[in-house]
Predict the structure of Probable RNA 2'-phosphotransferase.
Amino acid sequence: MSKYLSKHLRHQPERIGITLDDSGWVDIGTLLAAAAAHGFRFTRAELDHVVAANDKQRFTVDGDRIRANQGHSVTVDLRLPPAVPPAYLHHGTVARHLPAIRAEGLRPMNRHAVHLSPDRETATRVGARRGRPVVLSVDSGAMHRDGHVFHVSANGVWLTAAVPARYLRFPAPH
């Protein structure tokens, strides 16, 4: 169910006929009805369980509304205030992406922001989804001092528009 919710609350709400408001929220009753009409039935209790049990805390429920915490490819404004990041954040990737990252830095690709992790362990898990993980350190303190803006989502993921290569620390080759 988490993958289903991610797909429709972050990337393709129109596929099941729902419309996210400008902050990414949708009425839970509308979501349940739309999912059922498209052959994916679940109850409010099941939804609440998935939201509460999701290891990455990808979703937030506020009363009768739900939204994804970050990672949208559709246009939304999560209205997250700017935040001062820790000195270093981390990004998990795989080795095949390193040449492009060295040349261009980290770009949001099809998302609205680059996602950064507060710790190496989380970044390792993120990178491991696509193969053997490589963890890059981001000198987020220097980026912030140089005027780059950061936001932190409800589940602790740090967001920024892009990370120029000069702020990245690459692991030593093995």
